Write a sequence for this structure.
C-alpha cells in the first residue's frame, strides 16, 4: 500500500510544481504588457530623447566668440555645431552673392537648425555698412552721326542673352536650353520637384540623387526662383502610402502619423504632429510646408 501511495504522490507533486510555471508562461504569451509597435515607438522615443539631451549639451558647450556670418568659413560653422552639409550650403549661398543683413536671415538657410541659430543670436555681429555716396552723372554729349553708327555697331556685337526660366515652373525643354544640362538632369529636376509638390527653396536642387554640385550650380546660375503655391498633403485623410510617397517622409513616420490620428482623432493644428515622438524638429521644419489639415 505504501508503494502504491508513493506512485500516486510523485506525479501529484510534479504536477503541483510545474503547472504554475506552465500557466504563467501561457498567460504572459497571451496577455503581453505592450505590443511590438508600442515597444518600438518607446525605444525610438528614448533614442530621440538622448539625441535632444546631447544637442542641449552641445549648446551649453557652444563657442561664445563673436562672429560675422558673412565671413566665417565652413570649418568655423562646423565648430559651432552646424552639420557639414549645412555649412557647405551657407558657403555656397554666400559664393552666389547672398548676404546676411540681420540675424533672422541666417534662419532662412534651407534645413538649418533654427534652435541652434537662435542660441548664437547674441554672438552675431553685423558691421555697419556705409551708404554709397551719390555720384554726379556725366553731362550728356550731343549725338553726332559718328556716335549713332558706333551705337548700332555695338548692339550688333553684343551677344544675345538667353532667356532665364523660373526654376519653380520650367519644363524639361526649357532646362535643356542651359548648356551642359541634358535630358537626364532636366528630367531629374522636374521629377523631384513634382514628387516634393514644388520647391520651397532653390537649394533643394542639391538634394537630387547623384547630381553633382557642379551640375546644380549650373542650373541655379541660369535660372531664377519665384515660388509658386505648393501641392500639400492632407494629414487627416492621407493614407500611409500617400504620405510615404513624399521624399521627406519615411515609411515609419508615415505609419506613426496615421496611427496617431486613429488613436487621437483628426489633427486640429498642424503643430500637433510634433507630438509624434519619432519626429525630429529638423525633419518637421522640412515637411511642414508640404502638409495641411484641411482641403
Amino acid at each position: 500500500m505504501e508503494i502504491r501511495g508513493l506512485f500516486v504522490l510523485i506525479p501529484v507533486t510534479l504536477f503541483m510544481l510545474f503547472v504554475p510555471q506552465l500557466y504563467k508562461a501561457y498567460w504572459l504569451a497571451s496577455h503581453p504588457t505592450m505590443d511590438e509597435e508600442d515597444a518600438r515607438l518607446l525605444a525610438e522615443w528614448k533614442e530621440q530623447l538622448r539625441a535632444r539631451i546631447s544637442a542641449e549639451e552641445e549648446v551649453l558647450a557652444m563657442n561664445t566668440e563673436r562672429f560675422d556670418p558673412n565671413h566665417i568659413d565652413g570649418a568655423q560653422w562646423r565648430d559651432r555645431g552646424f552639420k557639414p552639409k549645412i555649412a557647405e550650403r551657407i558657403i555656397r549661398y554666400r559664393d552666389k552673392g547672398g548676404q546676411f543683413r540681420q540675424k533672422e536671415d541666417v534662419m532662412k538657410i534651407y534645413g538649418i537648425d533654427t534652435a541652434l541659430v537662435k542660441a548664437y543670436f547674441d554672438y552675431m555681429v553685423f558691421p555697419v555698412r556705409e551708404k554709397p555716396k551719390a555720384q554726379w552723372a556725366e553731362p550728356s554729349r550731343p549725338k553726332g552721326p559718328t556716335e549713332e553708327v558706333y551705337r548700332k555697331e555695338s548692339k550688333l556685337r553684343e551677344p544675345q542673352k538667353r532667356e532665364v526660366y523660373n526654376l519653380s515652373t520650367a519644363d524639361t525643354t526649357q532646362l535643356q536650353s542651359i548648356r551642359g544640362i541634358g535630358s537626364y538632369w532636366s528630367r531629374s529636376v522636374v521629377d523631384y520637384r513634382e514628387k516634393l509638390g514644388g520647391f520651397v527653396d532653390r537649394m533643394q536642387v542639391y538634394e537630387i540623387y547623384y547630381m553633382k554640385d557642379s551640375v546644380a550650380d549650373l542650373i541655379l546660375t541660369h535660372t531664377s526662383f519665384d515660388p509658386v503655391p505648393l501641392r500639400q498633403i492632407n494629414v487627416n485623410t492621407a493614407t500611409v502610402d500617400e504620405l510615404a510617397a513624399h521624399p521627406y517622409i519615411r515609411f515609419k513616420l508615415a505609419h506613426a502619423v496615421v496611427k496617431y490620428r486613429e488613436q487621437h482623432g483628426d489633427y486640429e493644428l498642424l503643430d500637433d504632429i510634433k507630438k509624434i515622438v519619432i519626429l525630429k524638429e529638423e525633419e518637421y521644419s522640412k515637411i511642414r510646408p508640404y502638409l495641411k489639415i484641411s482641403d
Q: What stands out?
A: The chain has three domains: 36-126, 165-224, 233-292. The chain has a mean pLDDT of 79. Residues 165-224 form one domain. The longest helix spans residues 2-30.
